What does this fold into?
Amino acid sequence: MTTATIDRSAAQSTDNVWQMAQRQLDEVAALIDLNPSVHEYLRYPKRVLEVSVPVRMDDGEFKVFTGYRVQHNMSRGPSKGGIRFHPDVTLDEVKALAMWMTWKCALVNIPFGGAKGGVICNPKAMSMQELENLTRRFTTEISIIIGPEKDIPAPDVYTTPQIMAWIMDTFSMQHGYSIPGVVTGKPISIGGSQGRDKATARGCLYVIDEAMNSLGIPIQGARVAIQGFGNAGLHAGELMAQRGYTIVAASDSRGGVYRERGLNVAELIAHKEATGSVVGFEGSEPISNRDLLACRCEVLVPAALEKVITEENARDVKAKIVAEAANGPTLPEADDILFERGIMVLPDILANAGGVTVSYFEWVQDLQNNFWEEDEINKRLKQIMTRAFAETADQARRYNVDMRRGAYAVAVSRVAEATAKRGLYP
It folds into this structure.
């Protein structure tokens, strides 16, 4: 590829999550002296599909939803990424998430590119039948670009193993035989993997352990605050409590709870399952999501949505480690502030890569029709996550930068090498 001039003027804002993702790439491209033409190629998605999704509702009327599937890069293999059902889904958000999936897969060195999907809807206001109708129609609309050798969806915000089962069944019915490898995060009964439900949280735990050891902070009794006590956050709290950490705060969309001496996580999970929220947990004090980010702890785990740690509140963070179980929770300006203050940020493409890693294991098992025990999966996951942490830390030291830029240096270099080796066709 020949060199090209890169126009970065569109990537300076962090109000837009897609521009934020491009800006992160631009900064690392300069850091590693990336070939300008490869840089330009990586700044844009390979393919963007927008579809209308007409759905028969329970009252017999039709409602039309908008859905997206974005494939950012496939130089290292078929693209991989979740599908989210959320009222705030936007195309720019899906494009950013697809780009981050490319880097995430490359960082843990699994043979996938990045993709993401989403449907603009409010699943909390829909019945199970309406969700099934939506899922099956959306699957039909994007079936032209997904498949085990092309693009493999997975669960994301407000999508579940049951929704993955409907996707797998719809795709399989179109082809006349079962194709379990078209999605991951499925129920075990139809080709899902042991350990997948807690994989994101377990991977996060492994890299937090590595970070704690690297900083010389004892794990036993270390205080943890979790913003977003959903799938990833809940399981992270459960696993970290078992490991010896003390969970002092947890929150969800309705609010949060705090207890200086530590929350009983098993009882908190039971309360969440019974009431739908952590709010009102007996023996705790109420805490807002904003105040949770500033509470005294060794480890802060943002496990909700994007852009929660900003230039305005970054100086209030008191944790020694920020482990991004969510995608894109820290704005670039906040990254710089945290780095200056000596706070280690474990970036999303590292901290929450356990999910896609075990999704890769599931895909391999489906293709081989050979399934592994959970101990084997967790052992393999730990090897991959600890190696990725070490490679990230090594590049961060090499360039004297934060862990996010270190992780991007590893990931972007791998994707760039694959892109350059393959060249352009025609």
In short: Confidence is low (pLDDT under 50) at residues 1-12. The first strand starts at residue 47 and ends at 56. The chain is about 45% helix and 15% strand.
